[in-house]
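Help needed: design a sequence for this.
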């Protein structure tokens, strides 16, 4: 014996839901938000700040904590460059402070990549002569 349930409403046997917002942030999940450039600026500033870690006081900080960040300068600079270029592309056509943040992140990331690579190239050149 089978029983059939007649549809209630236009959407089938399910109860109708309110169209009012539920208070959840689920509605915003389908819309991608534009990048603002703050991450790029932060990554570029952090990459340059890591260059000063060897000058931290030796009595307070261990050697590994002073010199390990030097290995992360170039990767953080590359991250700042890539995220800054993406943010600049996302904010195209808008006179936002986000464009300035993205440009500053690109500049800091470029400095964080070019200076260490330049030192390494100079070091190889100086040692080869």
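Sure. Designed sequence:
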């Amino acid at each position: 014996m089978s029983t059939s349930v007649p549809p209630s409403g236009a959407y089938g046997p399910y109860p109708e839901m309110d169209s009012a917002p539920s208070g959840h942030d689920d509605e915003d999940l389908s819309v991608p938000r534009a990048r603002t450039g703050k991450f790029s600026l932060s990554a570029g500033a952090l990459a340059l700040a890591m260059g000063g870690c060897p000058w931290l006081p030796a009595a307070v900080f261990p050697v590994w904590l002073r010199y390990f960040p030097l290995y992360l300068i170039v990767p953080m600079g590359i991250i700042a460059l890539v995220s800054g270029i993406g943010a600049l592309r996302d904010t195209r056509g808008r006179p936002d402070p986000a464009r300035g943040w993205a440009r500053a992140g690109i500049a800091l990331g470029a400095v964080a990549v070019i200076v260490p690579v330049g030192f390494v190239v100079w070091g190889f050149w100086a040692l080869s002569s």
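Residues 97-128 form the longest helix (32 residues).
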